[in-house]
Amino acid sequence: MEFKWQVKTAGLSAKRFLARQGVSHRMFTQINHSNGKILVNGKVVAPATKLAVNAELTLIMPAEPADPNVPVSHEPLTVIFEDENFLVVAKPAGLTVVPGPSNRTDTLVNRVKGHLVDSQETNLVPHVITRLDWDTSGLVLLAKHRLANSWMNQALADHTLVKRYLALVGGQLPDDHGIIDAPLRRADEGFNQIVAEDGKPAKTEYWVRQRFSGYTLVEVLLHTGRTHQIRAHFQSIGHPLLGDALYGGDQQEMTRQALHAFQLGYDDPMTHVHQQFALPLPEDMQRLIK
């Protein structure tokens, strides 16, 4: 793949300039070992070459071949958006995102790989940016190559990649808006997360969308990205998600945790255009709010 930039500042080396574009030292090593190239005004140059203002720098990245240990799946995949760098897909509840011991052949990553193969892409390693739990539905962002993965990991660190969720929590929340600011760590026994003083900082903000007789629809924004953060935080204030067996949620109305990643937004690192996507609630959650 080729990526082009116009240099705005004089005196930077090509390597330093590219580092500012998200090309890590590790990525430079991969480029050097697999016939990648740096060009300035169409001529191949060394990474230490100093750049002049208005020079055109081109980075040629080697393709990422398929991992033979990740099988291709041709099961259905709902693509919301796709360009040369990113892929936004709709994940249904009950589908694992990445291969693991319990499922190595038909996860979201296997399906995306099948999509890339069918599209005759040269980069065949999907990089998951926004992972969701097995039983959570909603939007998932994937990078189609190493550089796009680096861009979005930086966006996550800078909080410029924004994800919003809709959840149905047990009972009626008294306040229309709230922030749960409580550290989380894994429980001493089991797979659940608990609020604990020795945990990692975790902050969840929410807005009440609608109240029902036995539960509340809330919009949720994560300010940190801890494992099971939404699920553990709402349990900690006495309002576990409906259907969430691990965190004590009522399972009479839902058979999985009532959590849906409904909105995703980021600034495109090449065009600087803001991209925004939304996905309606799935049928099982819609049924309850109707």
Automatic annotation (TrEMBL):
SUPFAM superfamilies: Pseudouridine synthase. It catalyses: a uridine in RNA = a pseudouridine in RNA. Pfam families: PseudoU_synth_2. Residues 85-236 form the Pseudouridine synthase RsuA/RluA-like domain. Its EC number is 5.4.99.-. The active site is at residue 133. GO terms for biological process: enzyme-directed rRNA pseudouridine synthesis. It comes from the Bacteria. GO terms for molecular function: catalytic activity, acting on RNA; pseudouridine synthase activity; RNA binding. Keywords: Isomerase. Belongs to the pseudouridine synthase RluA family. Responsible for synthesis of pseudouridine from uracil. This is Pseudouridine synthase. It comes from Secundilactobacillus collinoides DSM 20515 = JCM 1123.
